[in-house]
Each structure stands twice: as C-alpha cells, then as structure tokens.
Design a protein that fits this description.
This protein is α+β, with helices and mostly antiparallel strands. It has 2 domains: 2-53 and 273-406, no CATH class; 80-260, no CATH class. It has helices spanning 2-17, 19-55, 69-74, 84-93, 128-132, 144-148, 158-165, 207-215, 238-252, 267-310, 312-320, 325-361, 370-396, 400-406, and strands at residues 61-66, 97-112, 115-124, 136-139, 153-156, 174-177, 180-188, 193-194, 197-198, 202-206, 227-232, 262-266. The protein has a 6-stranded mixed barrel with strand order 2-3-10-5-7-6. Strands 8-9 form a two-stranded antiparallel sheet. The protein is elongated, with a radius of gyration of 33 Å.
Length: 407
Amino acid sequence: MIEFRESLKMATSMLLANKLRSSLTMLGIVIGNASVVAMLGIGQGAQELATSQLEDLGPNVLFVLPGSQRNRRASFNLPKTLVLSDAEAIAGQVPSVAGVAPEINRRLLVSHRNLNTNATIVGTTPEYPAIRNFSVAQGRFLNILDLERHRRVAVLGSEIADRLYQTQTPLGQNIRINNITFEVIGVMETKGSSLGSNQDEFIFIPLDTMVAQLVGRTSPYGIELSWINVKAKDGDSVGAATFQMENLLRLRHNIKNGEDDFGVSSAKQMLDIVNTITGGLTILLAAIAGISLIVGGIGVMNIMLVSVTERTQEIGLRKALGAGEQDILSQFLIEAVIVSASGGVIGVVLGMAIVAIVGSLSPLITVISPAAVVVSLTISGSIGLFFGVVPARQAAKLDPIVALRNA
C-alpha cells in the first residue's frame, strides 16, 4: 500500500511537472468521452421526442394509407387509391371503429393583407380533432353545416395565426388560400411536430370546400383522399379494426390475390419503426464516437512511449537507487490511468454541456444517461490501463547502466 501511494505521488508530480504534454495526451480522451456522452444523449433525445409525439396520437389511432407497400417505400407521390366513399364505408360498416376523419392535404400559399407564407391545408371533417387529439384554443372547429354548405371557413394552427395576424385577433378576419378568401372561425392550441410535419402550420377547411375550391375532382370514382384517420373503440380493438378495414377495402377495391393498393398502420406500429430506426442510429453514433476513444488511447500510448525515451535518466537513476521493475511499471501505468480518467471526467462534463445546449436550442427531449456516463468513464480508464502497458513495460525493462550512460 505504501509502495502504491509512493508510485501515485511520483506519477502525479511528473504529470504536473509536464502540464502541456499531459494536457495534449488527455485531449484525445476528452474528445472521445464528450462525443460518446453527447451522441448517446442526442440519440436518446431524438428517440424520446419521436416516442412522445406518436404516443400523443393515442394507442387506438389508425391510418389508412393509399398505394401498395412497394409504392409507399419507393415514392412520396403516392397513387390516390382511397376515395371518400371508402371512408364512409369504414365509418358505417366496421363495428370496432369509433370515428373516421378523411383527409386531403396540400402545401399552398396563404396570405393576409401584405403577409404571405406557405402552410399545409387540410381538408377534413368535424371528427378530426377527436381522432387526432387536437384542441381548439379560440373560436370553434368545423361543423357539419360548414361541410354541407361548402362554406369558406378556416381554422388556423397556432403558428400560422401568430405569423399572419401577430398581435391581432384572427377570429372573424379573412385569410386568402390560393387567392380564395376564407373566414377564420378558430385557432388551434399549440401541437408541435409529428411524423415529420409541423402541426401548428396546418389550416383546416371543410373537405367538400377543398375539393370544390382548391383541388378539384381528379378521379371518376369519387373524391380522392390523402389518407383516412381512424379511431378504434379502444386499444384492444385495434387488431380487430385493422382486420375488418382490410377485408372491407379489399372487397371494395376488388382485390382477390394481388397486392393491396392501400395499407393500414397504427400509431404503435409507427412507434416501433421509429424506435428501431432511432435506436440503430444511436448505436451507430455511439460506435463512431467510441472510435475516437480508441484513437485517444493510441495517443496516450504514443506520448507515454516518447515520455519513456525522454526520461531514461530518471528511470536509470531510480533503478540504481533500488527501485524494482514493478515500481517503474506501477508509476507509468498510474500516469496513463490518471491521464485517461481525468480526460474522461472532463470529457463527460463537456458532453453533458453539449447535450444541455442542444436541448435548449432544439425541440429534442435530451437525456443524459447515467449508464452512458459510467460506461464512458470505465472505458476511458480501461483504455489508459490497456494502452499504458506497452510503454510501462518498456520503461520497467530498461537496464539502469545503459539508461544512465545514454542519458
């Protein structure tokens, strides 16, 4: 124990005597640990954000999407294989469904007086807020009379309302969508982003008005839909609702043996896919950051080897005074571990700071994982021990007479 304390004291004094060299040796470890902690924190933050957004949809929300699975993988411009009568059939004939909201969406130019912006125009029905868990902050949402009478009324997302009306009250004022005037009847509560789109940039108008005034009829089979939002009666009914809707649409679309020209996805399925993707990306980022830790360890070994060459006189003198190979080995190993562990602590603090900054400047729900901190510190200390063995053994094997003669 006394010998260890003596080796620790000598190792510390040598590191403090060569502050610049010690700092440069430590730099690679600092960068490696900071990268690991930051990448894992940001990756987990992205996963948490995606999870919170999809869970906000509810466990019993389903989406009926147009196009075959192959089409959906290969292109964003999906064939419009769903029509309004499909949504009406689901609402009327699928017993495990509690609500249906067909949807048409387009990215269009909107303006108020001299202010212009682009927004996602959503043509839908009064059932939409209940199914997609939206709430109205001011005014009201669309009702059945708006739909039946093809009224030019609009409900604005909170960000669009702030951007176009600023300090004014939007209710009762006009907004122009593709140079067609609509009356603002409501403003939605702030919702945030989901599935890659900013829901606060949505503008909701009656589905029939959108078809008659903005997009027109492009199919002889009815009003083409972007997709259909469906709410099952409860979480336990999701499987039954999916099965019943698939059978109904196959019958309506006359699909017997071929590939479906539609798909049914649940919020849970989307969550599983997102978690798989973000989890894989987090592992990839951590692996890339881990490489920098190894590079830092090699840097420790290189500098320690140079240090052995520079300190041959010191080593020879210690051996001449009675220090054994084990004493020299311990001193150099302790130096390597101190450099790596200190660099690990500094790197972890720096990584945590980076995660905190990213969290404050972005919508990511950044997380500092205690496991990542512990693993990072353990690996950095182990790397110092591992890469310190070669120079330490080289120092311990030096012949004291040769060392003193060459000094």
